[in-house]
Design a protein that fits this description.
alpha/beta, 5 helices, LUD_dom, LUD domain-containing protein, single chain, Rossmann fold, 4-stranded mixed sheet, 6-stranded parallel sheet, NagB/RpiA_transferase-like, FTHF_cligase-like_sf
Length: 211
Amino acid sequence: MNSRERILGRVRRALADVPADATPIARDYLREHGERTVAETVELLAGNLADYRAIVHRTDEDGLAALIAALLEKRGSASVLVPPGLDEGWLAGTGVTRVADRADSTPGELDRVDSVVTACAVAIAETGTIVLDGAPDQGRRRITLVPDHHVCVVRVPDQVVSSVPQGLERLDPARPLTWISGPSATSDIELDRVEGVHGPRTLEVVLMGGA
């Protein structure tokens, strides 16, 4: 029996005496704070991402490949991790060595990759959060946690929601969800901030509109 099975077993035992017709939990909380247009929601997302020290860029579909190529060049990246389902056109403008997302990649191999480029599942404006769900255009969770530089593309406005409740409605809880609010950061008891401890030191978010 592994740790997951033990935890789920304890939950089942704790719920064993709960009647089947128990009163359901009320979910009448606010679905979003205030009313906003689509454009205002996107602006709120951009502002909150920046507050979390993510670097925000904007482009349309036609300019995406050139922008990603410029970001990798500016970073000095010689290699980039590529999820299996990423749109090949997104990297059409760069000559950087592409590294496939392989199940047998070691942490050391992933650490030697300079950058990773992914899509996302949803972006939440009120919290400035990007959510990945392991879909083919995002790859395994570890490929966005080990490399030091993550470029994440958000399709605007399709993937942007106002609030966490709205975001949860779009997500499958059975998938491996990664919630990202800015680059990885932590601080010690004296509040000295250190970035890149348990994730990428630099997060660049591309808000991609239509063509």
